[in-house]
Structure formats: C-alpha cells, structure tokens
Amino acid sequence: MSTDELIKNLRGIWARAYVRIIGVNREPSWLIFELFFPLLPICAFAFVYKSMNAPSDYLGFVILGGAMTAIWMNVLWGMAAQFFWERESGNLTLYMLCPMPTMAVLIGMAIGSGFSTFFRVIITFMIGKFIFGITLHIASYWWLFVTFMLTIAAVFSLGMMMASFFLLYGRDAWNILTVFMEPVFFLSGFYFPVKTLGYPLGAIASLIPITLGLDAMRQLAFKLGPATAFLPVGVEITILIILTIIYLIGAKYLLNKLEYLGRREGRLTLRWQ
Amino acid sequence: MAITATLKRLYKIVKSSAWLGWQLESNWADPLIFAIITIIRPLAQLFIIIFMFRFALGPGASPDFFNFFFIGNVIYLYVYNVLFGISQVIFEDREHYEVIKYIYISPVNWYLYFIGRGFARLIVATVSCIVSIIAGALFLPLKFNMTAAAFPAFAFSFILGLISIFFMGIIMCALTLVMARHGNMMSESISGIFFISCGVIFPISSLPLWLQGVSTAIPISGWLEISRRLILNAPTTIDSVWHGVSTADLIYRLGFSTAVLCVFSVIFFHFMSMLARSKGIIDRTTSY
Amino acid sequence: MSIAIKTTELSRSFTGGGEKEAGGLFQALSDVNIEIPEGMIYGLLGPNGAGKTTLIKILSTLLLPTSGEAFVNGYNVDNQYDKIRPIINMVSGGENCGYGILTVAENLWMFAQFYGIPTKTAMERIKTLLEIMNLTDKADVKINKLSTGMRQKMNFIRGFVTEPKILFLDEPTLGLDVNAARETRKFVMDWVKNAVEPKTVILTTHYMKEADEMCHKLAIIDSGKILAIDTPANLKKQEAGGASYNITVGYKEFDANSLRAIPGVASFAHSVSDEDAIIEMIFNLEAGGALAKIIEKLSSEGLSILNIHKKEFSLEDAFIKLVGRRLNGGEAGANEHR
Ligand SMILES: Nc1ncnc2c1ncn2[C@@H]1O[C@H](COP(=O)(O)OP(=O)(O)OP(=O)(O)O)[C@@H](O)[C@H]1O
Ligand SMILES: [Mg+2]
Prior knowledge:
heterotrimer; C: Alpha-Beta Plaits; 4-stranded antiparallel sheet; 11 helices; elongated; binds adenosine-5'-triphosphate
C-alpha cells in the first residue's frame, strides 16, 4: 500500500468513526441509556451478593463485569448487526461502490464504537463503585490499562468478523442479538469469575475475548482477584493478542467473501431478502 | 337485534386485531428462533444466578435461597415477556416493520391489537417457564408443596398480576410513541428496574430502606410474594418486609392496584397518542 | 474519442427471484452489446423489469455478469473493479443514503471521504452543489428531518461530489417535483457539456421527455435485450418513416382516391365535420415525400386550405413501435388516432 493510498484509507476510517462518535453526542438520551442500562443488572446482582453477606470484592467483580457488558452490547448492536442496518438503509451498496476498501469502513466503525465505549465502561464502573462503596486494590495501572485496551481491540475485531458473518449466514439482526446476549453474559462470567464454570467450559468461553480480558482485569484490580483467577494474567494477555489477530484476519476474509458473493448473487444490495 | 349486531361487530374486531397481532408476533415462528427466545435466553439467565450462588455460597448453601430466587425468576418470565412484549409493540411496528402508520389509520382497536400480541408472549413465557422448572428440578434443591386448596387463590393472583403488567405495558407503549429509537431500551430498563426492586432474585429486605417503600408499592412485588407463599405452602418467606402482612391482604392490594393501573393507562395512552399525532412523529424512525 | 463503456455479449441471469424460466433461471440481460463513447449522456429506456438497473449494477461493479464481458474506461468489471471504482459514482432515485443523525453536509462529507477527497476540497464542492440544487438552507439539517425530495437531491449531490469520470444515474428524478426535475436535468446536461475532461453519464428513466431532452444516444431495452440504439432524433425519424400532416380545408366535394394517388403520399384519411363545414385530412408521407405536391393538388381541386399542422413524432411512438407497448402500461395504439 502506498502512502497516498494509506492516507486515503485513513480518511475513510476517520469519516466512519466520526459518524459514530458524533452520533452518540447528538442524542444525549442515548448516552444516558447506555450508561444506565448496564447499571440495572449490576445493581440487581450486587444486591444478590449483598443479601448473602458476600465480601465486598464480589460486588466489585459484578460491577466491573456489568460495566463491561457495554462493550458486548455495543459489539452486538453496533457491529454485528450493523451491516443489516446498512443494507436496509441503502448505505451498504454505496460502501461497496466506493473505491475505499470496505474493511476501512468496518475499521472506522469499530474505532468509533470502541472509543465511545471506552469512556462508558469507565463511567459506569465509577458509578457502581460509588453506589456500593467498593475499594480497589490495583496491582499495576499500566497493565490494567493495557488489558482493557486489548480487550476492547479483541472484542471489536470479533465484532468486525461478526458483521460480515451474520449478513452472510444470519437471518435477521433482531434474532441474532437475542441469541448472543444472555448466553454470553453467562459464559463470559460477567457476574461471577469464569473459573466457577470449570476449565472445559471456561476454555470455550475464552473464544469470546471479553472472558479473558475481564478475568485479567479482575486479577489486576481487586484484592481477591488473584484467588479466583482462571489463567495467569500474562497468558491471558497473550491469548488476547492472538485472538485479535485471528479475528482481524477472519474479518478481512469474510468481508472479501461477502463482497464477492454480493456481486455474484446480487443479493446484498437488496433491501429485503 | 342491535345488541347482537354490535356484539358481532365487536367480535370481528377482536378477531382481526388479535389475528394481526398474532401474525406479527409469531413472525419469527421459526423453530430455531423460537427455541432461542423461549429456552436459551431464560436458561442462560437462570444459570447466571445459579453460578453466582455457587460462587458466593459454596456447595453447602441453604435451599431457602434457591427456592426464593427460583420462584421469583420463573414468575418474572411472565413479567418480562408480557411487559417487554407489549411495550415493544410500538417500537417494533415503527422501526422494524415500519407498519405503524398503517395500523394507526386502520380501524383495528389498539387494545385488542395489544391483547393479540400479548397473548403470543404469554405462550412464549409459559414455554420458558416449563423449561426453567425442568432445569430447576435437575439442578436445584427445590421443594414445592402447594396445596389443592391454595390453587384458586394462586390462579386468581396470577391473573391479576398478568392484567396489571398488561396495563403497565400499555403505559410504556404510550411513552414509546413519543420517544426515539431508545423506546426499546426504555422498556428493557424498566423491566430491569422491576427486576431489582420487586424482590425477584433477592429479598426486598436487602435493599436500602428508602427503596423498600417504593418496592412494596409495585404490584409485581406483592404478586411474587403471594406466589411464593402459596407454592412453598409457608406463611412467610425469607423476605422480612412482608412479615406481618397476610396473604389475603396481599391479594386485595394486588386487585386494587390493578384497577388503578387500568384506568390510568387508558387515559395516558390516549393522551400520548394525541401528543404524538400533534407533533407528527407517529411514524418517525431513527437510524445512525 | 475514446470509449467509456463497452460490453460484449453481456448476460446476467438470476436463480429464483423473477418469473421462473427454464431451469429456474431468470434471464435479466441477454447478449447486450453496447459501446458508449466518452463525453455523452447515454440513455437506457425500457419498461419495468427490462434489465436497466441490472445493467447499471454490472457496470458499476456491484454485480458480476454471468457471461460476456463489460469494460468501464477500458477496465474489466470482473476483476479490475479497484481501478473502476475511483472514477465512477452512482445515484439511484428513490433510495436513501447516509445517516439520519448527521446533517446533509456531514453525510456528503463522509461519502467524499470514502473517495479520499481532502476535506477542504470536499467542503467547497459540497457548498457549490448545494447552491445549485437549492439546498443550501438545509446544509446543517439532519437528514431524518428532510422531505423525500430533499433527500433525493442530497443523494444526487453525493454522486457529483466525487467528480466521477463516469456517472450512473438510475431514474435520478424520481420523487422530484417538476421544477426540481427540470433543474436537475439542466444541471446534468451542463455538467457534461462544460466539463474540462470528458464526462460520461449513463441514465435510465421512464420519462420520454427526459430521455428525449437529455440523451445524446438512447438504447431501448426490453426483457433484457437491446432493441435499438440511436440518437433520439434518428429513433423518431426511423420509426415514423416520413412526416405526417393534418390539413383542414373548407367543405367541398372531392375525390379521396385522387388525393391518395399523389406521389409521395403513403396513406390518406379524412373526416368531415358538418357542423363547422370543414374537412380534416391526414396525410402520411413516405420518406422524402413533399408537402408542396399536396398543396398544389388541393388548390387545383378548388379546396380552400384553412390550416396546416405538421404532426411531430414523439419518442414514445418509436418506443411503442419497438417494444409493442407503452412505457407506462396500456396497449400500443390504444388511444392513438392513426
Ligand atoms: N437480485 C435479483 N434476484 C433475482 N432477480 C432479480 C434480481 N435483480 C433483478 N432481478 C430481476 O431482473 C429483472 C430486471 O430487473 P431490473 O431491476 O434490472 O429492471 P429495471 O429495468 O431496472 O426495471 P425498473 O424500470 O422497474 O427499475 C427483473 O425481472 C427482476 O425481477
Ligand atoms: Mg430499475
């Protein structure tokens, strides 16, 4: 890729990310819901632990997990289902038509979402921490930050892959979202350490990068974290990096396939299948 | 003569509205998707809680906790499905099917249409409920022993509970009429709020004091407590806020609050639909 | 002059979808051969389902042909689409684009970015185009607040912002009011005429007037086949044969056969109006037939000519003759007086 082309692609990425970022700011009510929404199960589940007189770090686990659900919700609604919306609104055709690789559009979408999610997770966590009076015990700020960023990167790479995958094999955005909400909340250990699931199930759950990211972050942020660890932090970070790379390659592959099939079958530019 | 004609006409409206509602609602009547909604989702939710208990309590936990949260969770399937289902009607019709304007201008009666759609949700909830009970029987130390004598009271409170959430759904629909895309977020949030405050999976007595007052005022809380007492055949449960209130009292209260909800929701819906029409946002869609 | 678009034996079939034909395949385009030189507006005219959009989709790299070849600016649409995309753009009428949450200007900017146009240049072009399309006052309005026609105008501008070398317009004036449609047509014609580097426009439309007025060349297409390609003027001429005249004369006995026998007259018909004491005569001439001979003959018969009216042949006549039916439904000649 020449520098000229690179600059052009960066323009496309920025333009698509801009839409995402500006979109959120334009509808502040949306922001309230995105902050408020994860707080509900957080509170419900924190009270469950409270009613059992569990240690306050357990409440902290739930609050961190609950805050991270924003990432997953964003990946589902904003990434996985996105191509459905785009097709319906006629934009997908235009994306295919333009000289910009569609991958740039997809990356822009992920960056835009990732950026706004980043702050939302932190804010939600801080609110929860305040409500339930949790004390943190941070082993390393630096590694906590790195793990958090890596988790976002890995999960959004998965989201990029899902976008093409669901348009190729899925039926309807609506139904997809329903399948991947609660079961993932369960498997990824959003509300309890994934170790509780046992190793075989935990290993499967690790394919969803949020599982390991969350486990590593709990280890880095809470006193009781290391006691409930699934894998050592170093291993989890390595796996996260590998997953990011695999999912990015997968996203590129599926997108090429999507574009090719779209041109051959002439289906993708149809609004209703 | 005139009466039979009116009745006939009314019957026709009921039938066609309910039919239309059912058609839209069972639009996804694909077995796979039906399974996802009725089985996978509620089971995942159930397992989240089971594993939380396992993690926090270890193996030797008291069965009272499990029975308490299990009954709450199962009844809440009805609350969630019917409330969420009804409150999403407007949102889905507007944003997803983009049919709202056509329904709005058609002669179908809104309430009958809602009932038709609510009914489909009731079936979904019942299937989920059965699945959850099977899973519960396999994995949890449940000890249900409802007496035959308690059954009429249980059924009566159950119907009252359903009616009250139906009207709550209508209130939310009315709000969705004037809200943008987050209409569906709103109904999710509200069922989330009820999930916290109605003592579904943990006793209301663990909530902060100021919240307990609000919680006990929501009809769903009383409904859950009635069901628990009758199913477990116990005068009280581990939730100490209800100690000192008799089951009969709880049923009267539920009846009264249902009546209030009914009147309020009808007025409110009418008002909001006028507002939506005057603002010209009946068929507004949002996308970005 | 170089060639902007060339297709050879281009065909496209769909499985399922349209009416099933042999083997469940539906032939949307069959053996299309066209050659479009640079710098012209080329029209595709045909009834619904003729295959116009399909052809445009293939040329704009959105759809692969099932057989045959298509070249845009010399590049094969099959595999050189990365060379084609930067120099083309497309606008389909009646379609939305962009995000409701963004303003008109922002949406246009975003699409320009996907073509790698620097922000400054993009904003300048957007400003100019908004002015031309009378949309300047809506530049900062979110597009979910626009009317259908305004959205259509924005979509139209989106096609021009990237200054494509080749532009596909699929029913671009759909949904526009009469004035806006006229402005749009004028804009497209000026854009092609005043371009520094040659611009090519491929246009589909259902409006005969639009095709007649705008296109330098027209292809008439039906059921996936090209039926005729020519300039609008030639199409009209060719299909109509010679000219045709309506002549009104004062009432008087006359011999119809002698009129029919005038050299160059292909056919003759008349009707008598007793009330006004006039005779309406219709002469259809052979190609090259002359009006002078008719007037001579009528005067020699002592008929006083009150009015002569040359009947113009429209593109629609040509279309009906080729396709066998009107563009907007109805049987050929159903309300034709000939
Ligand atoms: N993706 C598809 N799958 C199946 N059939 C298709 C598909 N796209 C187009 N067709 C069929 O191909 C034929 C030509 O369609 P096309 O859209 O090219 O027509 P058109 O000339 O643009 O018509 P209109 O004037 O209505 O826009 C139609 O019969 C249509 O049903
Ligand atoms: Mg078309």
